Amino acid sequence: MTRHVRLEAVENFRDFGDYPTRHGRRMKKGVVYRSASHARATDADLAAMDALNLAVIVDLRRPGERERDPSRRPPGFAGVVIENDLGEGHDDDPWWTFIRGSDLSEESFRDYLLNYYRDAPFKARHVDLFGRYFRALAEADGPVLIHCAAGKDRTGVLAALTHHIAGVSREEILADYLLSNDPERLAARAPMVKQMIEAETGRMATDAAMRAAIGVEAEYLEEALRVIEAEHGDIDAYLGARLGVDAALRAALEKRLLD
Q: Is the pLDDT assigned to residue 89 strictly greater than 80?
């Protein structure tokens, strides 16, 4: 299966279904999609997204991100858009706060991302968005798309939780997560991010630091799952206690996700 949907100006767009599961069944194709921001989507990109008949779009970005780079939607889009402004001001941007104070080393980017993944499952705005996503996914009459800015970190955690509910193995969960390291995406994005950092700080990051900043590593997602298990005992307990995924919702999600 070709997972990546090649669009002109929306990165990292892919179907994250069609995996085998422990139930002996397989995730359906064409039900769950993930991507980076749609702010620079071309008209051709919007037409391609419109053809998917998306019922729900979940925008995991912070309010300031949404204001700076408002999403483009297909003309007449009538689906549900899930977003929130919880817990952060419109000017808050921890990424750029980190950049301004960082030495821009490869190690500093890795440390930042590990800390990010430790916090991500428990942030109030993520808990709200993740829970609303699962309820919408269970009820939606059509495909659901989740995205953030780059479609790799916040989106990666939520996709992994979806895979867990569907019964996808940890090995396959990590393999899907690592598809964000698509060489074409990294080659296109690195110069742009490097230039933005130089414009903001007057300093130049190395190529290795850029790879750490814009790529993903299995260790990052594993750290998020580790802290979930450390706090709640296992992922299922986290899903129930934090996100409201009870037995009835889980059954509805399995019905939606599995062939």
A: no
